[in-house]
Amino acid sequence: MDLKPFFSALRFLTIIPIPESWCGDETSFRKSPDWYPLVGLLIGLMMAVLDLFLCWLLPMQVASVLLILAMIAISGALHLDGLADSADAFFSSRGREQMLEIMKDSRSGPMGVTAIVIVLLLKLMLLLSLPLVWRWQAILLMPLAGRCVLPVISSWLPYARREGTAAFISNQFSWVRLFIALAILSIPSFFLLGWMMGSLVTAVVCFGSWLSGLYSQRKIGGFTGDTLGATCELVELLPALGVVILAYQGIM
Question: How far are the Cα atoms of 25, 51, 162, 198 from residue 97, in angstroms, in the given order?
Fold first, then answer.
């Protein structure tokens, strides 16, 4: 088995110091999105273990803040940057080309900063609202869900720019990527939450991903690296949101 695309995905999505020689050439990089769900599962496992340790060491409020910092740090804030750029562009009331130019600007405007603050506050509130018995399970699923959506959207929608990151410029729908993403998302969900609850959480993630993709398509005719990052951040909230809703309604 050729693991170079996996190491390429791990190097791209995390700050883990993977040697460049392990990652192969551009061909391996183009195949790397197939491995994004597995990278998301590994990140989820790391965050769940870290949270168990932090909650043993510290009060839950402090542990939750530190966990969010760890979730940001593991990707080098890559997806938060995409969230800020996408918010600045989509809420600028400009045309398609102007929105694409705004995304290129490395500076964050008021809408980008607002989006980051809201998403981080919502993530913190969701973590604090999770029932203790389901906390680590939901935390494991959060990074997994966010990374599962990346290869699906990047093969479903056209790339909105003329050129960009090689791994995403395929413009061909991939059933393989869809199957891998759904399998790696749904199997841990069923195992950790049970068949019914796992199905509901998986459905919430799929529906949220579909809405995000449609919104991006309507605004700019496809996706960019920034919109993928924004989608990852938003979808990452959905497993925790689903568990909190089910627990609040007395279903689990």
Answer: 32, 42, 11, 40
